[in-house]
Write a structure and sequence with these properties.
The complex is a heterodimer of chains A (200) and B (73). Chain A has 11 helices and no strands. Chain A is mainly alpha-helical and 200 residues long. In chain A, helix 2 (20-42) crosses helix 4 and helix 10 crosses helix 11 (174-196). With 73 residues, chain B is an all-alpha fold. Classes of the chains: A mainly alpha (200), B mainly alpha (73).
């Protein structure tokens, strides 16, 4: 019996035979996820839309050479993440340099070592923590991450991809993904502490 | 494990990817070290907060533009 919902591979086979309906179906399946990934990496609706269009056009152009060594979604994420990284590199820098970033990442370690008492905002009520200003602070903090740390963090902690899939998408080793993710999390934790911790 | 090692192992700990023996050591350390406990709790909260951001839905006009572009190909 034919499954009701075709798999990505089945849709790809139909697209290769010229079935435009299958193409629309495949695009509809992933358009929100790709847009969200691009939006979280770029913080701009216009740039995210450009990346979305570029990504699907590249998918259509490359579909004949797609051999299925990785899953379609991993391949699509790779194309979209690379398009977003290219866009970030083209625009004026908003993010920190890597050395500034690493100084900030480890500032908390030094503060703790020097005997400072770190603010604990982990139990702040969710209503206060998720208001519009808090969301703005969180978006600004992501934008400060150097591009590759941002890509790793968005794919892993916002999109929820496993570390191995993030490694495949970004062409990194799994240990490199874990180390970048850890630094990105430390940085963001420090930044949010500056905001939520002050409210204590 | 000292604070230095704890800092490097925090992400693996919250992702439940840390080896069991290290995990026990880390948890022992947390019972006596206030700052490490704060960093771990607030990092966990940071990750949960970002994870809770609602998915940014593709606006309808942008969806129409995308489908128009792919039909032309």
């Amino acid at each position: 019996m034919q499954p009701l919902v075709p798999t990505d591979e089945e849709l790809i086979e139909r697209i290769r035979r010229g079935d435009n309906e299958a193409l629309e179906q495949l695009v509809s399946r992933y358009e929100d996820r790709v847009y969200n990934l691009a939006y979280r990496m770029l913080s701009s609706r216009q740039d995210a839309e450009d990346v979305l269009q570029d990504a699907f056009l590249n998918v259509i152009r490359g579909l004949d050479s797609f051999r299925g060594q990785s899953s379609f979604s991993t391949w699509l994420y790779r194309i979209a993440a690379n398009a977003a990284l290219t866009k970030i590199r083209k625009r004026s820098r908003r993010e920190k340099s890597e050395s500034e970033f690493l100084d900030d990442v480890y500032a908390v370690k030094e503060a703790a070592h020097a005997g400072a008492v770190l603010p604990d905002w982990s139990s702040n009520p969710a209503t206060r923590i998720l208001d519009e200003e808090a969301r703005r602070q969180m978006a600004t903090a992501i934008n400060e991450l150097p591009e590759i740390y941002r890509a790793v963090f968005v794919l892993r902690d916002v999109e929820g991809l496993p570390a191995a899939a993030v490694a495949e998408v970004l062409d990194l080793s799994v240990p490199a993904v874990k180390s970048r993710l850890h630094r990105a999390r430390l940085y963001l934790r420090n930044r949010l502490s500056g905001y939520f911790g002050e409210e204590e | 494990m000292d604070c230095q090692e704890i800092f490097e192992a925090l992400s693996e700990y919250i992702d439940q990817e840390l080896a069991q023996a290290k995990c026990r050591e880390l948890e022992r350390h947390l019972t006596t070290c206030h700052n490490c406990r704060v960093v771990i709790d607030t990092m966990r909260r940071t990750v949960a907060l970002y994870h809770s951001i609602p998915c940014e839905r593709l606006p309808d006009e942008a969806r129409l533009r995308l489908h128009k572009v792919i039909k032309l190909k």
